[in-house]
Design brief:
With about 375 residues, the protein is of the alpha+beta class. It contains twelve helices and 13 strands. The protein has helices at about 95-110, 120-140, 180-185, 215-220, 225, 235-245, 275, 290, 320-325, 330-340, 345-350, 355-375; strands at about 5, 15, 25, 80, 115, 145-150, 150-155, 160-165, 190-195, 200-205, 255-260, 295-305, 310-320. A hairpin with a 7-residue loop joins strand 9 and strand 10.
């Protein structure tokens, strides 16, 4: 069998990726639901599922673990904070196996769309991999275990029922590049930024669940170049964001949330998927917008890699219907205020226009009903 080819960003060069002998043992994984056949979605083959319900929640609303709106009107701000004591760097939800299976299907169908690296990034990838596995084993011991015997690391993924042994820095000891392999173990998308280089470029990553961007088009670009299409980024928070990356301290990770609103719950929103779902906005109106518009939440983290000067960047994507997130009247008012004040250029960038008015009307009605209920109970 000929070697596979790994795309190396820059000047269109292709470097072969040979198949390596890797010691991987199979144990008894948790039982799994049958995979859903449509690409871009996690498994839905579960009784009681309806559009937007994340697999693993057999009943009840899909309330996401974070609410990204901390102000009553739209503003361009970083929203960065230190990771709290006891707050995990990586999140594990009941959908772990379903989302890992989805990643595998996407990567089998077109790995060049989701993973990549620039030359010279392997040291940062390896440092990021080992740091991530150490954190996973420490913070999520019910799911992961990591031990070291001399130069050999042994990683146990309890949910997948796999035990993998590798040597740090030995590319032949893993079947994929370090971040490619790491991305197949966790729900997060994972990347490395090279903070030792001018402009803090994107050096490598595994990005299976992007929100209308793709890894290949951003690889090798500086932090400023990556965010150039974002309205108001450069003049509002560009410089402060750059300084944050440059001054990020080891052992002091930070986190933030990002948000989007879409007419689909699918996780894989690479730009070329747009024709398959953009028509869903056509059926959204003021009666059904709360159920048919989905809040897409990205919980992002940044962690300094002390040895190589890289930054490990993770994104955990959560998706649920807007209606399910409004567990308190304050949330309804806040989302309405943000949506009503989003500038037109940002509306276009976030693709809000097809359903924004309908969702605002739905939120108005929801807010009026909540106020009426409060008055009746007050």
């Amino acid at each position: 069998m000929p070697p596979r080819a790994r795309r190396v960003h820059g000047r269109g060069r292709i470097r072969p990726l040979t198949r390596h002998a890797v010691v991987t043992e199979r144990t008894s994984p948790a039982p799994r639901a049958a995979p859903f056949e449509e690409p871009g979605f996690t498994s839905r083959a579960r009784a009681g599922w309806r559009p937007g319900r994340r697999v693993g929640y057999a009943s009840g609303p899909t309330v996401l673990p974070h609410f990204p709106f901390d102000r009553d009107t739209w503003s361009m701000h970083m929203g960065i904070r230190a990771l709290g004591a006891g707050e995990p760097l990586f999140e594990v939800s009941p959908e772990l196996l379903d989302e890992l299976a989805l990643k595998e299907r996407l990567l089998r169908a077109g790995p060049e769309r989701y993973v990549g690296e620039v030359e010279g990034s392997r040291a940062q990838q390896w440092e990021g991999l080992v740091l991530a596995l150490r954190i996973l084993a420490r913070q999520q011991p019910q799911h992961f275990e990591l031990t070291c015997d001399g130069a050999t690391w042994t990683f146990t993924h309890r949910a997948k029922g796999e035990v993998t042994r590798f040597e740090e820095g030995n590319d032949a000891s893993l079947p994929q590049a370090p971040l490619d392999w790491l991305g197949r173990q966790i729900q997060e998308d994972v990347m490395v930024l090279d903070a030792s280089a001018p402009g803090v470029p994107l050096a490598a990553g595994s990005l299976c669940f992007p929100a209308m961007w793709s890894l290949p088009e951003k690889l090798g670009l500086s932090f400023a170049e990556i965010h150039a299409p974002v309205p108001h980024f450069a003049d509002k928070i560009g410089r402060s964001s750059q300084l944050l990356l440059e001054r990020l301290k080891a052992a002091h990770p930070v986190t933030r949330t990002n948000w989007g609103l879409y007419p689909t719950p699918r996780l894989d929103l690479t730009p070329d998927t747009l024709p398959s779902w953009q028509h869903l906005a056509d059926d959204i109106d003021a009666e059904n917008a709360g159920e048919r518009v989905f809040l897409r939440l990205e919980r992002q983290t940044l962690t300094r890699l002390p040895r190589t000067g890289g930054i490990l960047f993770t994104i955990h994507t959560w998706v649920g219907p807007v209606a399910d997130q409004l567990v308190a009247p304050e949330r309804t008012g806040r989302l309405h205020g943000v949506l009503a004040s989003v500038p037109e250029d940002t509306q276009r960038y976030k693709r809000l226009a097809p359903f924004r008015d309908a969702l605002l009307t739905w939120l108005d009605r929801r807010g009026a009903a909540e106020r009426q209920s409060d008055a009746a109970n007050g």
